[in-house]
Structure to design on (104 residues):
């Protein structure tokens, strides 16, 4: 399971938080949506975990890995340029906790 696959099309806000929770190992991914239904209260109420997932998604939008539409939700940015992952580049880019790029 990869982020680009899960977010290939527009994903509702609650489902986006669920997918992110799956990707980072907080909950298990489930094609039947049983796990989503079991944990939905985390994604649609104010709480520390839901807030963290929301902020993580917003950071992914800020670095342009995801796109956001206030009605449709989130989706993978098909034009995302992961140039800093290119093994042919002699230097790498590292992001600090504030999302600022630093040459390594």
């Amino acid at each position: 399971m990869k982020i680009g696959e899960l977010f290939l099309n527009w994903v509702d806000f609650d489902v986006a938080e669920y997918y992110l929770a799956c990707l980072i190992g907080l909950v298990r991914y489930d094609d039947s949506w049983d796990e989503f239904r079991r944990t939905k209260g985390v994604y649609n109420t104010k709480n520390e975990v839901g807030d963290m997932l929301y902020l993580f998604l917003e950071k992914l939008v800020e670095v342009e890995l995801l796109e956001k539409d206030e009605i449709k939700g989130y989706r993978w940015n098909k034009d995302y340029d992961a140039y800093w992952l290119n093994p042919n580049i002699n230097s790498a880019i590292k992001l600090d906790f504030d999302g600022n790029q630093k040459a390594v």
Summary: The first strand starts at residue 66 and ends at 69. Residues 48-62 form the longest helix (15 residues).
